[in-house]
Amino acid sequence: MLDRYQDVVVFTMSGFDYYEHFNVQKSLITHKPVGVNFIVGSMTPNTRHMTDDVKKIAGKNPTFNVVTLNPWTFVPEEYETYEFNLD
């Protein structure tokens, strides 16, 4: 999809995962980068399905994100992460 519409799609965000990270999306045809996806953290403090490696990175505090987009281009201009400290 991004191969065809990479000039139209300016921002992708998906979730959830247990910690924030980026994923470079590559063309299925040329294997060149065509986009970046931001994967947001989890809103749940439930850690029972996490592997030990993920627990070291993620912890148990839920997060949410606020993204301010340019109203004409929809390109992100500001990004904030908020974390609920359950400790």
Question: Can you characterise this structure?
Answer:
It is a single chain. Helices cover 13% and strands 36% of the residues. The protein is mainly β and 87 residues long. The protein has a domain at 2-60. Strand 2 and strand 3 (33-39) form a beta hairpin. It is flat, with a radius of gyration of 16 Å. The termini are far apart. The mean pLDDT is 78.
> Biggest β-sheet: count, sense, barrel?
3 strands, mixed
Query: What is the count of DSSP helices, taking H or I runs of 4+ residues?
Result: 2
Radius of gyration: 16 Å
What percentage of residues falls in helices of 4 or more residues? 10-25%
SSE ordering: HEEEHEE
Provide the low-confidence segments as ranges: none
Mean pLDDT: 78
How far is the N terminus from the C terminus?
42 Å
Please report the total strand number as a whole number.
Answer: 5
Instruction: Walk across the major sheet and give the strand order.
Output: 1-3-2
Helical/strand content category: mainly beta
Strand percentage: 35-45%
Shape: flat
